[in-house]
Input
Amino acid sequence: MFSYRHAFHAGNHADVLKHLVLIHSVSYLQEKDGALLLVDTHAGAGLYSLREGFATVSQEALTGIDRIISNQDPQTNYSELQAYIDLVNSINPPNRIDFYPGSPFLMAKLLRTQDRLRLFELHPSDIDLLEQNIKQLHLDRQIEVRKEDGFTSLKALLPPPSRRGLILIDPSYENKQDYFLLETCLTEALDRFATGSYLIWYPILQRTESIQLPKRLKAIAENYGRPWTHAELRITHEPTERRLQASGMFVINPVWTLHPYLEKLLPTLQTALGEDAGASYRVLSSQT
Output
């Protein structure tokens, strides 16, 4: 249960896609003054060193943030990535990327005075690191870290008093049970808070549960009469799965600008992160 550590994968191509969708969505929702509840159901450690520890074993940041920062083609328009690049640079020394901010850290950096952030994590090592990393931000009145199962604890937060919220659900999926737990969590959340924005990350793998997940999420969204947007990014297409080659984001109640944003963003990511002719992307939406 506790074998997965996101530190091995921090800053990889999947993080890049997930965090760009997250930042765009939060930023759009913050254009209105009303308080916003942000939730991460599987928060991890929140902040990761890329130059020591687990990240140096896999070196997956080389497929993601390192390539974005160091290989920016002057002929390519990186405007859709600028807010993300600025946030990553803000926690690093000049001209170096030594640390990568996980979703909790990114959301914390985006908080306005009226917003609140709730973070769930069960891993005995990561929860301690998460508490330490969040504490350095001195936002105790706005951020709460809970050593709880985000799948089962999310519903107690919903609906937020402001009726405005964004929930990121990104389990490891190492345990096949996560696919079932995700669907249960999502339906319980929608029962309580049908208008919330739900951002669901998933790995694209050659297993039945992974292949079926987008269709099942689409069915859930449509059963509740909610709009959705679905994006996938693949950086290569190897016959084996020795490493993660592709991932997706399925968003229920997306901000209305998300689909056009992704249509501009994904070609740039394919060019920046694609390793060979197997690189590809797709974006679908109920609103088009």
Q: What stands out?
A: The radius of gyration is 18 Å. The first helix runs from residue 13 to 29.
